[in-house]
Design brief:
mainly beta
Length: 555
């Protein structure tokens, strides 16, 4: 007889001592069997020990089987033995953090024989030839679903590559995805990571939505990168637009912004642009205004300030600033102002500056222990040229040297130089509205200060409104006049008159002296033209030769 005897079996077996029925020892064994005494309905029976005679109950959370064959495991462990440790947990697994909760947890350790690929979960979702209309295949499909209450952070997928011991991971990837065609199949559109638009078809609200977010990376001891595209050219580019219309990429040498990969688009910068080719010295390249641009080379300063900056809306500062000791600046301050060129400072300021609205300053500036600059301060004004200071002692260092256009719509153009050892300022300035000053100033001033005044040459000044000065070394301070001269005004033209300040010569011969004396030309009668007055060397008199060729003495 079997040792394990139930009440139902005992009722159907005859009771005797003949050896064919129930023996007394069988009854004794059955009566002494240690049954649990109570049980959970539907709980899976488990053995107590290895004899096969005894069962036991659970201390808590028994696994159960329903009438339709579903097995439920609550907060227990399903363990295997493929590796040293292999656990599938439901709920909170033993020995794991009590602060978390796991629907399914897997804790596995790979055996030493695995050298190529070890995986905690392996899923191979296959479709056969009869699957001709399938819309979506997903090897993993799930939701982080909050039906009520508040969740601070909800992740559809949360994973990390963890180095928890003293070992080394050469390349750690939190998530690695890809595509592969291993036979003759076809992938029409391959996407390593695809983020579809979020949906809420049944109501609800998403306040702030971001397709991909990368937090600032600071954990690297040597380098930290937020996003890296390894490779050159297309294939390692970023595409924009519904038709992949524009791109940004690096070709191994240069960075490209291509707004016309498809179509004829252009690149637009919504706020400001600041860039420097090499910022190895002091100072900064700054563009702080909307749609402003600061661009160029800002380098080689050993100390002091060297900067290129554009602060006004729509302003532009472009060029090269360099300083071995002192400062060099290229500026464009107010809206629509442009400043460009090359500024080299040493021990003091050398700048190209355009500070007024719509003004432009452009040129080359150099300074050795002296001020220098190409500046515009008038709205719509223009300053262009070359400013240089060259102090080599023993005289005091030069102060100044400037091309300045401060009047509205004014123009200052030329070359300013403070020569060797000079201590005077060289200035080329157009300060009147609509004034123009052009030329050369060496330790002197060339300026047009009056409204619509004009100064052209070297060291000439037009200081009155509508005055003009052309030449060298004089000042025209008379309104509504045009003056020309060298060292003085030699010719002054005004409204209704022409004033000659020196002798009037014809072909090198004085005809009218500066005092107004008329000195007629001398000629023999036969050589003199008709209708002319001349001194006749034939008659030794002042004569008039009429249209008929007759010579008439005038006294």
């Amino acid at each position: 007889m079997p040792k394990f005897l139930t009440r139902e079996v005992a009722k159907s077996v005859p009771f005797d001592n003949s050896g064919t029925g129930i023996a007394a020892t069988d009854v004794q064994d059955a009566l002494t069997e240690p049954w649990p005494g109570s049980a959970t309905d539907g709980a899976l029976v488990r053995w107590d020990g290895t004899s096969g005679y005894h069962t036991q109950s659970y201390t808590s959370n028994p696994p159960t089987a329903s009438d339709d064959g579903r097995i439920s495991v609550s907060q227990g462990l399903l363990t295997g033995s493929t590796g040293s440790v292999s656990q599938i947990s439901i709920g909170v697994p033993s020995g794991w953090s009590s602060g978390g909760w796991y629907g399914i947890g897997i804790d596995t350790q790979l055996p030493p024989s695995v050298s190529v690929l070890g995986t905690g979960v392996y899923v191979n979702l296959k479709t056969d030839s009869s699957s001709t209309n399938r819309i979506t295949n997903a090897a993993f499909y799930g939701f982080a679903n909050n039906t009520s209450g508040t969740v601070t952070n909800s992740y559809g997928l949360l994973c990390a590559s963890l180095a928890s011991g003293t070992g080394t991971i050469t390349n750690a990837h939190g998530v690695a995805t890809g595509m592969s065609v291993t036979n003759s199949g076809t992938i029409t559109n391959g996407r390593g990571v695809y983020v579809p638009d979020a949906s809420h078809p049944f109501g609800g609200t998403i306040t702030n939505l971001t397709g991909i977010q990368v937090d600032g990376q600071t954990g690297g001891s040597v380098t930290n990168y937020g996003l890296v595209l390894l490779g050159d050219g297309h294939g390692a580019d970023v595409r924009f637009g519904s038709n992949r219309d524009a791109s940004v990429y690096y070709d191994g040498t240069d960075l490209y912004f291509d707004a016309a990969e498809v179509g004829t688009g252009v690149s637009r910068f919504g706020t400001s642009l600041a860039s420097d080719v090499s910022n190895v010295g002091a100072g900064t390249v700054i563009a702080s205004g909307n749609y402003s641009i600061a661009f160029g080379y800002n380098g080689v300063a050993s100390s002091g300030q060297t900067d290129i900056h554009a602060t006004g809306n729509g302003s532009l500062a472009v060029g090269a600033g360099s300083s071995s000791i002192g400062s060099a600046q290229i500026k464009a301050t107010n809206s629509g102002a442009w400043a460009g060129g090359y500024a080299v400072g040493s021990d003091s300021v050398a700048l190209v500056q355009s500070s007024a609205v719509g003004s432009l300053a452009f040129g080359r500036v150099s300074s050795d222990s002296g001020d220098a600059g190409i500046e515009t301060t008038g709205e719509g004004s223009l300053s262009l040229g070359y400013v240089e200071t060259n102090w080599d002692g023993p005289a005091p260092p030069p102060v100044g040297a400037d091309i300045l256009s401060s009047g509205r719509g004014s123009l200052a153009l030329g070359y300013v130089y403070n020569g060797s050892g000079g201590a005077s300022a060289g200035l080329l300035k157009a300060s009147g509205n609509g004034a123009v000053a052009m030329g050369y100033a060496n330790e002197e001033t060339l300026q047009a200060t009056g409204v619509a005044s004009f100064a052209l040459g070297r060291g000439v000044q037009a200081t009155a409104n509508y005055s003009h000065a052309v030449g060298r070394g004089f000042t025209n301070s008379t309104t509504d006049t045009w003056a020309c001269g060298f060292g003085q005004i030699d010719l002054l033209v005004g409204s209704g008159y022409t004033d000659v300040k020196g002798d009037l010569k014809i072909n090198g011969t004085t005809s009218i002296t500066s005092l107004g004396f008329f000195q007629p030309v001398s000629s023999v009668d036969g050589s003199a033209p008709s209708n002319s007055i001349y001194y006749s060397t034939t008659q030794s008199k002042l004569v008039y030769k009429d249209s008929g060729g007759n010579v008439n003495n005038l006294y």
